[in-house]
Amino acid sequence: MSDGSSDGSTGEPVGAGDGSADDEPTDDEVVRTAAEAAEGVVFAHYDQSAVTDLDVTVTFEEGVLDVDVYLNAPDDPDPDAVAREAAETAGEAVDELFEA
């Protein structure tokens, strides 16, 4: 097992549909959606028992989503690449949430 750690981060603004606050998901929904998407990517690549450490930190403030993924897992596949994919997928999941 490697000591592969990674910090995949996205700090991009998230767009909202027509600008109506009533249509927008809550901050909690945004955070939960991003975290679940990131974890889903990690566990699609690794068995849960193979992951030594996983920390997904999501913040959503003033329309800006920030996702940090720390992953300590075996070297195959590359944990850094998986962490980056997880962070990117989290952002995409939130974009889809706002488009719905």
From TrEMBL:
It comes from the Archaea. Residues 1-29 are annotated as: Disordered. Transmembrane segments: none annotated. Pfam families: DUF3194. Belongs to the UPF0440 family. This is DUF3194 domain-containing protein. It comes from Halorubrum persicum.
